[in-house]
Amino acid sequence: QFWRFLLRRNLPASSLCKMHFALLGLGDSSYSQFNYVAKRLSKRLLQLGASAMLPLALGDDQHDLGPDAVIDPWLNQLWELLLRQFPLPAGCEVLSDRHCPAPRFTATVLDSLSYADIGQPVARQQPPSMAAPPANSTSTPA
What we know:
Blueprint: H1 2-6, E1 20-21, E2 24-27, H2 36-47, E3 51-52, E4 57-60, H3 68-85, H4 112-117
Parallel strand pairs: 1-3, 2-4
């Protein structure tokens, strides 16, 4: 519905004049319509009066460094721009890329005894390729 709405021909050219956007397309340049949706969306937003905060970025899986060659610089530019327009409150600072927050959850591998200990007995099953054939089956050499 959003796409259909944007493509309506009767929308005034100033419909989105108060909108600012940054658009990152992800695609694969081996396809004939590489990043078609991102290109078309950007063009339409501009036609309707929106302002691009950054140039359209087109990530490409075929790039030697993958889509990250475009994504990483684009994200850095976006964060710089957003922090200039919307500074952090006093006493707050941007976390470094190396910051690793403490985990909120822990994972513990439980064996069959541990399952029984917590009241949820579960029979451990082997994958089908490892399981023995059913007792009533016969097999013949290939």
